[in-house]
Amino acid sequence: MNYNQNKKIIQVTELTLIIGVDIASEIQYARCFDDRGIELVKH
């Protein structure tokens, strides 16, 4: 891993919510994960 990637990983704490959104299709999808990578919501 490079230095920038390590800095980003360190920023993720137990208070962090990670959200991924797919806007490439007609229907948009979103997924939410906690700091451990456990999926919380999928729409």
Explain what the structure shows.
There is one protein chain. The chain is of the alpha+beta class. The protein has one domain (3-42). 21% of the residues lie in helices and 33% in strands. The protein is built from 1 helix and 3 strands. It has one helix at residues 3-11; strands at residues 18-22, 29-33, 39-42. It has a 3-stranded antiparallel beta sheet, with no helix packed on it. A hairpin with a 6-residue loop joins strand 1 and strand 2. The longest helix is centred in the first third of the chain and has 9 residues, at 3-11. The mean pLDDT is 84.
The proportion of strand residues reads 25-35%
Number of domains: 1
> Mind describing the biggest β-sheet?
3 strands, antiparallel
Uncertain residue segments: none
- Total E-strand runs: 3
Q: So how many helices?
A: 1
Strand order of the largest sheet: 1-2-3
**Alpha-carbon distance between the termini?**
31 Å
What class, by secondary structure content?
alpha+beta
Q: What's the alpha carbon Rg, rounded to whole Å? A: 13 Å
How confident is the prediction overall: mean pLDDT? 84
Salient structural properties:
alpha+beta, three-stranded antiparallel β-sheet, 21% helix, 1 helix, flat, 43 residues
